[in-house]
Specification:
alpha/beta
Amino acid sequence: MCIRDSLSSYVQYCVSHMHLLKSRMKSILITSFLPFCLCGEFIFGIATSAMQIEGAWLENNRTMTIWDNLAHSGFVKDNTNADVAADSYHRFDRDIALMKEYGIKHYRMSIPWTRIMPRGVAGSPVNYREVMYYRNLLKILKDQRITAYVNLFHNDIPAILAINGTGKYDVEFPDHFAYYADVCFREFGDLVPFWFTFDEPWCQSIYEHTMAFEANVKPYRIAHHLLLAHARAVKTYREKYAERHLSLIHNCRCRRSS
C-alpha cells in the first residue's frame, strides 16, 4: 500500500469514528477540569500548512523561505526537504475531493508569503499568477461547501528578509507583514470568512535561532514584533474590510497544581 493510500485509509477511519472521538475527548476535558467542553459551537476540521504539503518549491516565481535554506544546508539529519512534500500544489483538486468524500466541512490552510510577494518587502510587486491559483483553490473549497480558515504566516518567512535584514527580529518586520496581509485581505477576502495572522507565536519566539549573547532578550523582541505585526494587520482588516473573524493561532498548555 502506498503512503497516499495509507493516509486515505487513516483519514477515513478517523472521520468514521469522529463521534466516538468527540465523546472521548469531552470526557477527558471535563475530568481534567478544563474550563470548556465540546459544546454545539465547537468546530471539528483538518489543518495543513503550505510548507508541509505543497511542494513545487520554486515554481511560478515562488522564492525561498528560511525553511528551504535550512533544509538545503544540511540542517536536517537525513537531508529531507519540502521540495515536493505531498505535492498538494499540483494535487489540490484531488485533495479537496477527498475532503468532500470524507465529510470534512472545515479546513485550515496557509498561503505562503513567498508565493504572493516573492520579494517579501512592503511595496514589492504582487505575483498575480499565484493570486489566481489560490483564488481557484478557495473557490473549489467554497463550491464543495468546505469553509476555509486561512493562516497568513506559518513561520515560513521569506529568506530574503532574513538575508537582507534580521527577519522577525527586524524592526521593519511589522511593516512588511502588514503590507502582505493587506494584499491577501484584498485579493481573497470574498472567499475567506476566517483569517489567522500567525501560527503559534510563542513557538516562533522561543524556538527561534538565537545568538548566544542575545539569548535572553531576542525571544522577547521577536514576540514584540509579532504582536505589533498582528496589531497592524487587525487594524487594516477592521478599517478596510471587516470587523470580525481574525485572530492568532495559539498553542496552549494546561497546567494543574499537584
